[in-house]
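This is your field. Pick holes in the following sequence-structure pair:
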Amino acid sequence: MREIVHLQVGQCGNQIGTRFWEDVCGEHGISHSGIYEGDNELQLERVNVYFNEATGGKYVPRSILVDLESGTMDNIRSGKLKTLFKPNNFVYGTTGAGNNWAKGHYTEGAEISESVLEVLRKEAENCECLQGFQVTHSLGGGTGSGLGTLLLSRIREEFPDRMIATFSVVPSPKVSDTVVEPYNATLSVHQLLENTDEVMCIDNEALYEICTKTLKLPNPTYPDLNHLVSFGMSGITSCLRFPGQLNSDLRKLAVNLVPFPRLHFFLIGVAPLTSMNSQNYTAVSVAELAQQMFSPKNMMAAADPSIGKYLTASAMFRGRIPTKEVDDNMLNLLNKYQTQFIEWIPNNIKSTICDIPPKGQKMSVTFIGNSTSIQELFKRVGSQFNKMFRRRAFIHWYLNEGMDEMEFTEAKNNMNDLVTEYQQYQEAKLEDVFGYEDDDTMPETRGEDEDEDDDDDAQVSVDSGQDDGDGDGDDDDGEDDD
């Protein structure tokens, strides 16, 4: 089996993760105490991806729950799923990180990181063929961002060839819990760039918008937001958990969505959008699903895809849907929104179909897009970071934990480079990439070797942004390097 080990870190990560396990148990017919009560053999065919079968026929999640304070853990252990998780897989500290990335990454978090890794190794040893790791955390607090990224770097060291996917809640433009969110988020993105293969970006502001404007909920609560995130997560993982006509796994997803190694930050969209109480009343066609999933209103991060371009995208349909109908609708979508897709990666929407629909629905779709508009999210965080860092506000809290100012500067520069890369590929044209127009034939007047050299130069101008092939050793975008 291609197992996935799930890690939930910090308060936000644990709340989202617990809601995800509620939904996954419901879809697989597993009760809150881990006993199978379903009536469909397909529910058990791939149940081992996320669950380990213990003695007595009990299914135990391959999940590790981590926090630097015990409050969230106590809630889980006294909640609906109190008997579902393995007791040894709760790892927590006593002091908390106090919204300080450095505490989570260097001091308090580092103290419990070895305990977490010990549990993680045991879970990995219980797998026949470990596919990878899935992490839920937030980037704005101290534990999810600091300890979360520390664990990611340690996992990458120990399991360099396994996939790592994260569901990361990024700071919102309007909804902010903490003054130092921009610092924590920038330091985290710096780590996510190096130590992950796929990052699904989610933010509370976009989720609030969906709840108030689309679902017409007057006062959305965190359980409402967690329901939406969990719906997206279960959609993305459905092809891993159930057999289908077009299957996928974490590696296939990355191969189809990541054209360049650093550009692995994705937008998520889901359709149909439903509140917790209205799922049974929603009926839609494949055409409507395809239309809805592409709408900016359905995106779970505050970045408008219409102002950027899609490098790649993936649509995961669920339900009894003919493959031809999906293919036709995807083709129509590509033709209709042709200008929103870059021209130099042909056929850049991948689709998968899982036969089992979500509980209470006939069909649904989850959309993952690698869009250059995600740079808006990083620009926003970067701008807030610069305002505070210019005055060195709040820096002493981080320096007291042993950090160096240089780390802030490095993280800021790395994020600025990421924004520049997204912009560069957004503006790249077909002739920039290949060195000649699509309709033109290659010039034949020069030697073959010279032509190849020219092509290499043209490739470098887009791929690295360091040399534009004109021999002057810089890029022609008119900007000075920072």
In short: The radius of gyration is 23 Å. The first strand starts at residue 2 and ends at 9.
